[in-house]
Specification:
mainly beta; 6-stranded antiparallel beta sheet
């Protein structure tokens, strides 16, 4: 059964906010899927900084390139996840499917940017975990 989570650009920013720590725990061999409507938009500030979960290299806003944090680089304004408490990150965007290869982890979601102070808006992430060994 899918779960939905509201990820907020300001509150869940990787730079100064807190991750949205979900109640989803994944284990090795499961399939994790996360979907966000391409029409859901959030903002990294004024002017052309509105984007969907794919980040600011898209038709809705300007192209601000990549932001690197703790050795991981993704487009500004992207939806990003972690299953190890923020030690490592993976791109989510508007659609992501991932086989879990680590023993266990709790899903956390982030707005990827350098300055949380001028962020606004949120997106709704629909998360599903498919149990059992993947074939």
């Amino acid at each position: 059964m899918p779960n939905q989570f509201e990820v907020k650009a300001k509150e869940n920013s990787v730079s100064g906010g807190s991750p949205l720590v979900t109640r989803i725990t994944v284990t090795k061999g499961e399939l994790l899927t996360i979907n966000v409507s391409p029409d859901d938009k959030w903002s990294a500030g004024a002017a052309d900084r509105e984007s969907n979960a794919n980040g600011l290299s898209n038709p809705f806003g300007g192209n601000y390139g990549l932001f690197t944090h703790n050795g991981f680089s993704f487009f500004y304004g992207s939806l990003v996840g972690s299953i190890d408490g923020g030690k490592t990150f993976f791109a989510v965007g508007t659609r992501m499917e991932m086989s879990i290869l680590v023993p266990e982890g709790r899903l956390a979601l982030y707005y990827w940017d350098i300055n949380q102070g001028d962020n606004s808006g949120s997106v709704i992430a629909t998360v599903a975990v498919y149990k059992g060994p993947l074939v």
